[in-house]
Amino acid sequence: MRILDAHQHFWDLSANYLPWLADKPVSFRYGNYEAIKRDYLPDDLRADAEGFELVGSVFIETEWDPADPLGEVAWVERLRQREGLPNVMVAQAWLDRDDAPEVLAAHGQASFVRGIRHKPAAASSPDAVERGASGSMGDPNWRRGYGLLARNGLSFDLQTPWWHLAEAADLAQACPETQIILNHTGLPADRSLEGLAGWREAMRLLADNSNAAVKISGLGQRGKPWTADSNRGIVRDTIEIFGIGRCMFASNFPVDSLVGSYHTIFSGFAEIVADLPVEERDQLFWQNAARIYRVEMEGVA
Predict the structure, then answer these.
(1) Domain 2-292 belongs to what topology?
(2) Taking Cα atoms as reference points, which of 154, 220, 152, 156 lies closest to residue 185?
(3) 3-state secondary structure at position 73
(4) Judging by DSSP bridges, how do beta strands 180-182 and 155-158 pair with one another?
(5) Contact 60, 117 (CB under 8 A)
(6) 193-207 vs 165-174: helix axis angle to the nearest 10?
(7) Cβ neighbours for 98, distance < 8 A, ≥ 6 positions apart
(8) Which pLDDT score, from 0 to 100, does residue 126 have?
């Protein structure tokens, strides 16, 4: 099975400062994450993906030292030259900071940077959403930075709980020239009937905008192993809502190694969509990622 992994991370903890991995533990949706406090580099990804045809990857920023948002780009460039992975990256930027114009301009000049990720401030539950909260997608300072993405040729990777997708839809409409790529399937952690109904409604709001796509990833549940049966409905609902052409499968490795092996996750995706035509499966596993992230696939037919 051919894979262009649309969302993965590398880190060298002996050389680089990632506060959430180096300092005291943070609140994390999968619970204890001690197991991933170790170096993770291209050879590790290739070993995890053994048995699949890994044709490339999209590196997503790792919450690198926020005082040095350009440092990760320089490190990834050296990694690419030495290891052949990743193909492209989504870099760090803080859209509501005073240095946003300079940082985004620098990212736009890097030949392998395709977009940025800045996790907006989020409420802890649907009933706690505060429109226009500081650091949120409704914050004027945050939106001012967001408005600079298109002129620098950058897309936006959005990681936020589903109850903020109405704000994301508004953002998509306000800046139709900017591609939004929703991370981790909108984080449907609440698998109750009510929770899933709210998630589906929110996903439809975002999907109504043609400049929005989604990565089907990050589907682990705290304290439970990743299984195809537990995630089948979410995967198929996402494909139905966004359409084949705007969905991408991704590993979120090494983070999702906390809930399942690479083989478990991608074999699970394959099982869930086994009834689809091979052309549609190719779109989900690699072609859409290559198109949306503008990855040159030399020698791949």
Answers:
(1) TIM Barrel (3.20.20)
(2) 220
(3) helix
(4) parallel
(5) yes
(6) 0
(7) none
(8) 95
pLDDT tier, 300 (very low <50, low <70, confident <90, very high otherwise): low
Q: How far apart are alpha carbons 286 and 133 in whole angstroms?
A: 37
Give residue-wise pLDDT tens across range 252-275. 999 999 999 999 999 999 999 999
Q: How confident is the model at residue 53 (pLDDT cuts 50, 70, 90)?
A: very high
Phi, psi of 188 (to 5 degrees): -85, 65
Element (H, E) at 182: strand 180-182
pLDDT digits (tens, 9 = 90+) for 83-95: 999 999 999 999 9
Instruction: Please give the mean pLDDT across all residues of the chain.
Output: 97
Which pLDDT score is estimated for 268? 98
- Beta carbons of 120 and 141 less than 8 angstroms apart: no
Task: List 213's β-bridge partners, or say none.
Answer: 181
Q: How far, in Å, are 17, 32, 192, 243, 263 from residue 223 at the CA level?
A: 28, 10, 16, 31, 19
Cα–Cα dist 155/114, whole Å: 6
